[in-house]
Here is the input.
Amino acid sequence: MQRRTLLHASAALMLPTLARAQAFPARPIRYIVPVSAGGGSDFIARIVTEHWGKALGQSFVVENLGGGGGVIACQTTMHAAPDGYTLMQGYVATHGTTPATRRVSYDAIKDFTPIGMIGATPNVLVVNSTLPVKTLAEFIDYVKKNPGHVAYGSAGPGSLTHLTMELFKQQIGGFMLHIPYRGIAPAFNDLIAGHTQAMFPGLAAALPHLRSGQVRALAVTGRVRSQQQKDIPTLEESGFPGFDAMQWYGSVGPAGIPADIVKRLDDALVAVLKEPELREKLAVEAVEPMPMTPEQFGAYIRADIQRWTAIAKARNIRLDE
Here is the structure.
């Protein structure tokens, strides 16, 4: 009799949770993108939410909140009601390199609920096409034999392009002068003009220049070769185990979203990431889908912050001092 009573009580407690999950979402979901409209991250958000919304039976309203390196978007998201109706497209800057290199007004772990990974694109080590190297080994040898004569560009201090090259420098034990730019486009202009000799941009940004022959690719980050450029070896296979730094994109919400709502959101996201049509659209930005559970995505974020915090500390990169 007592056991039957306990079972009935447990079932009664579960009913509100089941009902909430089945009813969600009952209205459009606000989806904050921490960059201005028109770029690659915005494109990814709009393509993914279009498919994601169909799977959930509800629309997403994309809202661009650029500025502050993603801080404004993060603050807005973390202060939203934790009901699943406000989400944000977190990415390697907001939940990786930025908290690793400067003080920010949010905790990238404690203030957010991981929903799920969307996907990632590798960084690619490129050199000016006139540089007398054709392989990664030749480039490393060239750097070591020409100390002080090799400069690399980045999209700015503390950016992924900056930290990835600093990680590479640390691992090869070589020196290259860092030349920061205000964005990847001017950095590419100077690389092509020969004012710098190397760079570690995202693959999507590098593809037009690789196809024109103005720069040469030597290696990509990631555990496997890119589907976009299968002939470029990974750093991992070239003797740099664990060099899997990626430009990644995922979805997060404010801390405290109920687990059943998180599961409903992630189940739908995982389903659409398996669609060939969505995979083909994401390939425009060289993004490979990487579906994960919320727990796996949370662990991925923590590991990425730890990676970039360690390299920032080792290379004395601190942007708020």
Summary: The radius of gyration is 22 Å. The chain is about 45% helix and 20% strand. The chain has a mean pLDDT of 93.
